[in-house]
């Protein structure tokens, strides 16, 4: 018998913790939400110290994600991957910035509490986003926790830029680092 | 309201098309199954021309995957990603080659009809496999279809080797190329 169904969920607390009625107009606002999600996730013990959110052209939330690797027993369930899959499921757009007739919808933005790892980096190439906003750097993740970012192209920013994806780094970096530090001090799992 | 559930499925034909009662002892046997899956997928019009399968130390199937990007409206739903998520869901092991007490289980093998793209490459780093078996090369995919493999580390094989993952290429390459060519001649979608 083949196992044929993938089912992944966000933790129940997201429905109370996230204000979907408001806009998140600035880059810093968007990354600050991702960082708040990362903090909630470790406080609720519902996954690793990573959060992400996809925003539409109106600066409102399309979907959010948090790391669910351990609770879901799924190495794919990183925050950015959850956010992409949920945003695509909600909109039924396999490229978030293209509609069914291939018309442009945008800009679509992903905000993430930490630099995407090798898996989330590759997913970012296909997800259909125009802007990638990042809090903590890879070296913050690797120095403050036992997580590893994995192998990336040498010029990973340039390769995204060539595909029309703008990258902005170091947004609310100190706040993002504080959550990573808190997690690292807990001796959290590596996943 | 937040969208909080990801649900991805394999096509119904997999239950009839895959013989789970037998072993797939050689590397060529394993990749041949992945290629048969890729062919079924385009003939049934249930996704792109890519198939994959995860095998346990007994050379039997743990899970299979086919490309489901268009039917699921999900850019994450590549064949290798589906196979990893389904294998992890079935075994409840977030690293396929480690049990809950971190004991080694292996070798675990992924066989894929074509070289993993940038997303599936990154996922391979975290999925917990020991061996990666590949049919068609990236240049076959890019010359025979309109698919794009995305940015990879310059020494992508070496980076996997450093993490203990053996890579074997060009297994049943002609058969894999034949399916890609058939798909390319259909003028299939790029996804």
Summarize the structure.
The structure is a homodimer of 191-residue chains. Chain A has 191 residues and is an alpha/beta fold.
How is this structure best described in words?
2 copies of one chain form a homodimer. Chain A has 191 residues and is of the alpha/beta class. In chain A, 39% of the residues lie in helices and 16% in strands. Chain A is built from 8 helices and 6 strands. Chain A has a 5-stranded mixed sheet, sandwiched between helices. In chain A, helix 2 runs parallel beside helix 8 (173-185) and helix 4 (79-91) runs parallel beside helix 5 (118-127). The longest helix of chain A is centred in the N-terminal third of the chain and has 17 residues, at 27-43. The radius of gyration of chain A is 16 Å and the shape is globular. The first copy, chain A, starts with a strand and ends in a 6-residue tail after the last helix. In chain A, 52% of the residues are buried. The model of chain A has no long low-confidence stretch (mean pLDDT 96). The interface between A and B is large, with 57 and 57 residues.
Q: Characteristics of this structure?
A:
alpha/beta
Oligomeric grouping of the chains: homodimer
Spatial extent as radius of gyration of chain A: 16 Å
Shape of chain A: globular
SS element count, helices of chain A: 8
Through-space gap between termini of chain A: 29 Å
What is the helix content of chain A?
25-40%
**What order do the strands of the largest sheet of chain A run in, or round the barrel if closed?**
3-2-4-5-6
Average pLDDT, all residues of chain A: 96
Q: Give the number of DSSP strands of chain A.
A: 6
- Poorly predicted parts of chain A: none
